[in-house]
Amino acid sequence: MYRPLLYAALVPVLLMTGCTAETSTPSEPAPRPIVSATASPTAAEDEYAVWNAGRSTPVADPIYPKRGTDALDVLHYDLALDWSPSERVLTGTATLQVRPTKDAASFSLDFTPYEIDSLTVDDAPATGKVAKEKLTVATPVTEDKPFTLVVGYHGKPMTTPMPSKRSDAHPLGLTVDRDGGLWTMQEPFGAFTWYPANDQPSDEALYDISVTVPKGWSGVASGTPKGRDGDTFRYQSTDPVASYLTTLAVGKYKKVVAKGPHGLPLTYWYLPRDKDAVPVLKKSPKYLAWLEKKFGPYPFPSGGIVMVDSDSGMETQQMITLGSAVAKEGADGLELDVLHEYSHHWFGDTVTPADWTDVWLNEGWATYAQFLYQSERDKIPHASLDAWFRQSDAALRKEFGPPGHPRPSEFAASNVYICAAAMLRQLNNTLGDKKFFALARAWAQDHRNTQQTRASFTAFVNEQTGQDFTAFIDAWLDSRTTPPKSLKDRR
């Protein structure tokens, strides 16, 4: 999402720029499992092995428990979508390959009230209803026995409220713009406003998305572009994707294609009103090259940016969703935001938090990357950066609490960005650049396509450094005041 700007003067301006949700108990929560999206299938799942890379071990989210379920592991989504701008109607057929994690008499997915045109489970007609943003299907399922769900639906898109008080917050999910186009941003949830989804971060899946639009319009989605058939645009994700990291945009777009590091295919989609942002978008190879030097190879087979009519920006996988309002910051500010969103492809996209308690794992790293880039670009003294972090951290902890305990009603508050980045800054200062960036690179590269937790991050830092940083990390994530520069200073 829209990120904090570190102004050249390093004034202690505290911007609303953060992410996520709750828990106010000072003690460390019980460790959650490290979840891999690449576990081996059982023999009973052989026919579903083609979607094995979409396997996860979903966990219930403690911040937004009404979203998603730990009873289902969606392996693959095939979304065939058709948008009518004149009627403002979305028609879709969603085909899901799903692995139940529990025996149950019925199952539910997140879904907004579209009219259901057809519903089958393993090709047999099924009964289902949509209520309270849930599609419940009255078909029994068996643990570890995958099934295929097909839902045909149509209707006018509806958004869902965002649990945030930040100034650039807007309703989540599929939005119809002033010209009859579409766009979506859906962190921490909202994918269910355009397809039935297990809408929580721990269940990552593979995707095939096709978007049919009228002549002269373009359909843009997350994943690798797979060409077009007439007015149908196709995309595919062969790396698993969390639902909040999918995107969809429809409009009368202009298209620019480019090459990034190592020939990486890049695509920029913009509307004529956003043409002034294009020079910054075209600098993407420079930003990606800088990030690769710090954190290792870009983790996906393609990248790009789509401009939409939003106040915010989002790190949607392989195709950043960037709001027009962000471009109005000017070239310098827009550059920092684009760099921030690209950095999330290492931190948040390929390595995803298992639940929203650990959103700091996304935002701390991306914010620190942004600040490092700006400090190099603008030649900001290290001492000034250190002082700014500590001053900002103190004020944000006082207002929003510690970053390891986000509040559900204040998703995207600045503490999960800046306070977590301040922790990484102190870790950087403690280890030195060589050891710190070796750790950062290993974290991103060794944990590709997995979901991680605070406990697993702490264990990784301790193992990587050969030192015990548990108390250090606990202090930065749990303390209501800024930790001292050295934990030895604590009284």
Automatic annotation (TrEMBL):
<dbReference type="GO" id="GO:0008237">
    <property type="term" value="F:metallopeptidase activity"/>
</dbReference>
<feature type="signal peptide">
    <location>
        <begin position="1"/>
        <end position="21"/>
    </location>
</feature>
<dbReference type="InterPro" id="IPR050344">
    <property type="entry name" value="Peptidase_M1_aminopeptidases"/>
</dbReference>
<keyword id="KW-0862">Zinc</keyword>
<dbReference type="InterPro" id="IPR001930">
    <property type="entry name" value="Peptidase_M1"/>
</dbReference>
<dbReference type="GO" id="GO:0016285">
    <property type="term" value="F:alanyl aminopeptidase activity"/>
</dbReference>
<dbReference type="GO" id="GO:0008270">
    <property type="term" value="F:zinc ion binding"/>
</dbReference>
<dbReference type="InterPro" id="IPR027268">
    <property type="entry name" value="Peptidase_M4/M1_CTD_sf"/>
</dbReference>
<keyword id="KW-0732">Signal</keyword>
<dbReference type="GO" id="GO:0006508">
    <property type="term" value="P:proteolysis"/>
</dbReference>
<comment type="similarity">
    <text>Belongs to the peptidase M1 family.</text>
</comment>
<feature type="domain" description="Aminopeptidase N-like N-terminal">
    <location>
        <begin position="75"/>
        <end position="245"/>
    </location>
</feature>
<keyword id="KW-0378">Hydrolase</keyword>
<dbReference type="InterPro" id="IPR042097">
    <property type="entry name" value="Aminopeptidase_N-like_N_sf"/>
</dbReference>
<protein>
    <recommendedName>
        <fullName>Aminopeptidase N</fullName>
        <ecNumber>3.4.11.2</ecNumber>
    </recommendedName>
</protein>
<dbReference type="InterPro" id="IPR045357">
    <property type="entry name" value="Aminopeptidase_N-like_N"/>
</dbReference>
<keyword id="KW-0482">Metalloprotease</keyword>
<keyword id="KW-0479">Metal-binding</keyword>
<dbReference type="InterPro" id="IPR014782">
    <property type="entry name" value="Peptidase_M1_dom"/>
</dbReference>
<feature type="domain" description="Peptidase M1 membrane alanine aminopeptidase">
    <location>
        <begin position="282"/>
        <end position="476"/>
    </location>
</feature>
<keyword id="KW-0645">Protease</keyword>
<dbReference type="Pfam" id="PF17900">
    <property type="entry name" value="Peptidase_M1_N"/>
</dbReference>
<dbReference type="Pfam" id="PF01433">
    <property type="entry name" value="Peptidase_M1"/>
</dbReference>
